[in-house]
Design a protein that fits this description.
heterodimer; A: alpha/beta; D-Maltodextrin-Binding Protein, domain 2; 2 domains; 6-stranded mixed sheet; 3-stranded antiparallel sheet; 12 helices; globular; B: mainly alpha; two-stranded antiparallel sheet; 2 strands
């Protein structure tokens, strides 16, 4: 029955007549679209912030999973929604910096959204199977140059897809896509499994997706891209390796609305995020899963996302990774 | 610490009222959710997840597992009563369960589904407890080439569920394969058959196709011919399945359970293929082969054993390796992590009490399923007595709601109705729906794994023969195809003989 109520609320929220923004926004439940499936990194992050954020908003937030096409289906539904602040999106690195940079025919661009804040950063880690001969990033590069190396990702145009290429390039592999074979799988779980069962040599993805395997001694981390060390990962950081450019290669989650979202509503969301991310219990839960809570205001969020997008776009052009058609 | 000590430790964790209550509530919620068309076991688990955050880890996880198991069984209730699989896993149950209900044997079909589910559930749980380590290392030897040959073999199920005409079965399967290609290409990421519509970028929603194919054609037939069913007996039949029924189906139930355990322990396959494989194997081995698809109780037993056999076994890769095998276990792994637990080999050392507590809880869940499922049958069976004029509009409303709720998308509702007309035409021309569905489920797996294997080997087909597992499935596929061809030739020869004898 809970769903019925949830869904009714969602339907009402979408169907009610357009109301101009005013002081007592929100007057009815806000539909928060999660463009990925239940149990994924975005979903868990969204469900964790739901409670403190709902308290800050002082209204009901209805979590709506709209899955498909690497986050595009859910993103499009918010792009086309009325900019009344009653339909918002959990934007993610995959849907809002990698996909726009790689996919020529994506039905949206960054300009179709107004970001009200990024609240979470996920360090990126590269890892190989624990009994692999590859013990360090240098070993990996040697192996890549010798040939026959593969890496897995959660799909074409996903964050691990571009991360693997960017890291190899940063460590001097001129044409990473020719030197190694990329094996796309369906979903992050399958991508990690591919390394465990020997289908792929290595994977570069959010540290939280690998933390369990590293803790259990099934995988060996080679590096993390943040400047600070990541708990549980006994591997050099981008600062240790003297590759400051890699610090940009991090996952993130933020909240966005359609591009013509009114200023006052966007400002309110900025304040609410600040209140929610100050919640100690929330921070504790997120950090336990390897996330770094870092709130960016709307201007900073936009700058950060566009910076990352530009880096990826340049790389995509250089390596010929663009997906046409 | 000995195994016995571990079990005592586990027992201590589980034997409190809170944990047992959570488990029972979970199973009950799962059965009801599974019984609502469109509300799959996956959705039920996802919805229950937030409620478990504040519980003790073991209590919360047991509740989710209860929802999962209850949901998989619950799906068989509407599959039998109204020809609408409550979850994708119960599609195979429709094939014989619904004809039985039409004959006035709904009670017998439902109780057999329950007995088969509980037996398979118990076997699956025991396999998890006793062979988790061994099965997990077996599962890890499944790379894309092994997967490809397994799926190729599974496609031979089509011959088993085609009914009268193999040709019509193959037409139906081809249609399913074709529709499965809609969406983003795995390797290039380009859109296929989306006609510029972003709604089609993610492919056709599986639940929408499923409901459209099974439930809507029934309703359309009713509208087309409102009095067609009159005179048919369609009451519940007070009788449940007898012990003799259970004994007769026992072999199929055991076979189905083992198929479920093996497919369940390999990440990435899920319960629906297992149910179909178990069903087609039971049909191949049964002396009542001719009766399959027309209301054979052994078919119901095999299908339900196949899908419930998966439920315990999916926890094997989850607990032993930390790998979620399907969407449901991906949600459950989230619950572990929220409580700061890392599933994997170390968990057996660091959190042995929780692991063995789970094992004990799972055994209890099989028993809980037996009683709660029995109670649910007693309540839901009255659905069979509701006149069609009232029942069908209700079913339609549930279908629309369920289909919308999967992804909160009106587009999916449109897909459901479009598929409803396709299903209606197929029904009119005697084209079976089951091969369509199997091809729709297995097609993408076949393609993806083939292409991944080709990427691994640099396009050398030799990789498809790299291990004994691939040879094993190549052999099975070849044997099945030969058996189908020989069966066809024999049928043709008999027919000739029959017609010439008549002259």
């Amino acid at each position: 029955m809970k769903t019925l109520i949830k869904c009714l609320a969602a339907t009402l929220a979408l169907g009610a007549p357009y109301a101009a923004a005013d002081a007592d926004y929100p007057k009815r439940p806000v539909a928060m679209v999660i463009p990925y499936g239940p149990g994924g990194a975005t979903d868990i992050s969204a469900c964790t912030i739901a409670e403190p954020l709902g308290n800050a908003v002082g209204g009901t937030l209805v979590m709506v999973n709209k899955t498909g096409a690497g986050g595009a289906t859910g993103s499009v539904s918010v792009q086309n929604a009325k900019p009344d602040g009653y339909t918002m999106l959990f934007a993610r690195v995959g849907s809002h910096s990698v996909s726009p940079a790689m996919k020529a025919t994506l039905p949206y661009t960054l300009d179709d959204f107004r970001f009200v804040g990024v609240y979470e950063i996920n360090p990126l880690a590269c890892a190989v199977q624990a009994d692999s001969d590859i013990k360090s990033i240098d070993d990996l590069i040697t192996a890549v140059n010798a040939g026959g190396v593969t890496y897995s990702s959660s799909g074409v145009g996903s964050f691990p897809h571009i991360s693997g290429a960017m890291i190899l390039k940063e460590f001097g592999v001129e044409k990473p896509l020719e030197a190694v074979t990329h094996i796309p799988l369906k979903g992050g779980g399958a991508a990690a499994t591919a390394v465990l069962n020997g289908t792929a040599t290595f994977i570069c993805t959010n540290s939280s997706a690998l933390a369990g395997y590293v803790a259990n001694g099934q995988m060996r981390p080679l590096l993390v891209t943040t400047a600070e060390p990541v708990t549980g990962f006994d591997a050099p950081t981008s600062a240790d390796l003297d590759k400051p450019a890699l610090a940009q290669l991090v996952g993130w989650t933020g909240i966005a609305g359609p591009d013509d979202l009114p200023d006052d509503i966007a400002a309110k969301w900025g304040d609410w995020l600040a209140t929610a991310t100050a919640n100690e219990e929330f921070v504790e839960k997120m950090e336990a899963r390897g996330s770094v809570i870092r709130l960016m205001d709307p201007a900073e969020s936009k700058e950060f996302i566009e910076g990352q997008y530009e880096t990826f776009r340049k790389l995509v052009d250089e390596l010929g990774m663009r997906i046409e058609g | 610490m000995s195994l016995f000590d571990n079990f005592m430790l586990g027992l201590a964790v589980v034997s409190n009222l809170e944990a047992i209550m959570a488990l029972i509530i979970g199973v009950a919620v799962g059965v009801v959710a599974g019984a609502i068309p469109g509300m799959s076991a996956t959705m039920a688990v996802a919805l229950a997840l937030p409620f478990t955050f504040s519980m003790q880890p073991i209590t919360g996880i047991l509740m989710l597992l209860g929802v999962y198991k209850g949901g998989i069984f619950g799906g068989s209730i509407p599959a039998i009563l109204i020809k609408t699989p409550g979850t994708p896993a119960s599609s195979a149950t429709v094939l014989d369960g619904h004809p039985m209900a039409e004959r006035g044997e709904a009670g017998r079909a439902l109780t057999m589904a329950l007995y088969a589910s509980c037996t398979a559930d118990l076997i699956s749980n025991l396999a998890l407890i006793l062979f988790a380590g061994w099965l997990a290392s077996f599962a890890l030897s499944f790379g894309p080439p092994e997967f490809f040959t397994l799926i190729l073999f599974s496609l031979t199920i089509i011959a088993g569920v085609s009914g009268e005409s193999l040709l019509k079965g193959i037409v139906s399967a081809s249609l399913g394969l074709l529709l499965a290609t809609v969406g983003l290409d795995l390797v290039y990421g380009t859109a296929r058959f989306n006609f510029g519509d972003p709604n089609l970028m993610g492919g056709l929603n599986f639940i929408a196709v499923l409901i459209g194919l099974f439930a809507i054609p029934e309703i359309l037939s009713m509208v087309w011919n409102p009095h067609g069913h009159e005179g048919k007996v369609r009451t519940l039949g007070r009788k449940g399945a007898s012990f003799a029924d259970y004994k007769r189906c026992f072999k199929s139930i055991i076979r189905g359970s083992f198929i479920g355990v093996i497919l369940g322990s390999i990440p990435g396959i899920g319960a629906a293929p297992s149910a179909f494989l178990s069903y087609s194997e039971a049909r191949r081995k049964s002396p009542n082969r001719e009766n399959f698809g027309k209301g054979e109780i052994e078919g119901v037993a095999a299908a339900e054993a196949g899908n419930n056999g998966v439920a315990g076994a999916t926890l094997i890769p989850l607990l032993a390796l930390g790998i979620p095998g399907d969407v449901i276990t991906a949600i459950i792994i989230g619950a572990f992590m929220i409580h700061g637990l890392q599933p994997g080999p170390l968990m057996f050392v660091m959190n042995a009490d929780i692991v063995y507590g789970l094992f004990m809880g799972l055994i209890v869940s099989s028993i809980a399923l037996f009683f709660i499922g029995g109670a649910a049958i007693r309540v839901f069976k009255y659905v069979a007595d509701i006149p069609r004029g009232i029942l069908f509009p209700l079913v339609l409303v549930l279908c629309v709601y369920g289909c919308f709720a999967v992804n909160n998308s009106m587009f999916d509702v449109g897909v459901m109705f479009a598929m409803g007309w396709v299903g209606f035409l197929m029904l009119q021309y005697g084209v079976p729906a089951a091969p369509f569905l199997i091809a729709f489920i297995l097609g993408p797996l076949l393609e993806d794994n083939f292409r991944q294997a080709m990427l691994m080997s640099g396009s050398s087909p030799a990789i498809l023969f790299r291990s004994w597992i691939t040879w094993f499935f190549w052999g099975l596929s070849a044997l099945t195809v030969i058996a189908v061809i020989r069966g066809g030739m024999k049928a043709r020869a008999d027919q000739k003989l029959g017609s010439s004898g008549g002259m």
